[in-house]
Write a structure and sequence with these properties.
Blueprint lengths: L3 E4 L2 E4 L4 E7 L8 E7 L6 E6 L6 E3 L7 E6 L4 E6 L8 E8 L15 E2 L3 E6 L1
Parallel strand pairs: 2-11
Antiparallel strand pairs: 1-3, 3-8, 4-5, 4-9, 5-6, 7-8, 9-10, 9-11
C-alpha cells in the first residue's frame, strides 16, 4: 500500500507561481511512475504530467507544457510540480498519483494509476 500526501496548494494571482509537493510512504518509491492530475469544478479529472521512475522521461498535457515542470527526488520519496505563469483556468484540485505499471499511454489516464493522494486546492485569481 502506498500513501500519498500533497501539499503546497493555495491562492495565487494570475501570472504567479506555486510549487506542489507529494510525499510518498513507500520505500519502493523509486519503482513507481508518478503523475499529477487535476479536477476543476464540474469537470472530470484530467492528466497534467507524469514522470518515469528515474526521472528521465516526462510527459505533459498540452495545456501546461512550457509552464509546469514535474520532478522527483527518489531519496526523499517526493514528487514535485512547479507551476509558473498560472492562469485562472488552472484553478482545480490537484492530485498526486502513483503507478506500478510500465511506461505507456495508460499513464495519461486516471485508470493507469493505482494510488491517489487526497488532493490540494489551487486557486488562481484574475
Amino acid at each position: 500500500q502506498v500513501q500519498l500526501v500533497e501539499s503546497g496548494g493555495g491562492l495565487v494571482q494570475a501570472g504567479g507561481s506555486l510549487r506542489l509537493s507529494c510525499a510518498a510512504s513507500a520505500r519502493t518509491f523509486s519503482s513507481l511512475v508518478m503523475g499529477w492530475f487535476r479536477q476543476a469544478p464540474g469537470k472530470e479529472r484530467e492528466f497534467v504530467a507524469t514522470i518515469s521512475r528515474n526521472g528521465g522521461t516526462i510527459y505533459y498535457a498540452d495545456s501546461v507544457k512550457g509552464r509546469f515542470t514535474i520532478s522527483r527526488d527518489n531519496a526523499k520519496y517526493t514528487v514535485y510540480l512547479q507551476m509558473n505563469s498560472l492562469k485562472p483556468v488552472d484553478t482545480a484540485v490537484y492530485y498526486c498519483a502513483a503507478s506500478t505499471t510500465g511506461w505507456g499511454v495508460s499513464l495519461l489516464q486516471n485508470s493507469g494509476y493505482m494510488y491517489w493522494g487526497q488532493g490540494t486546492q489551487v486557486t488562481v485569481s484574475s
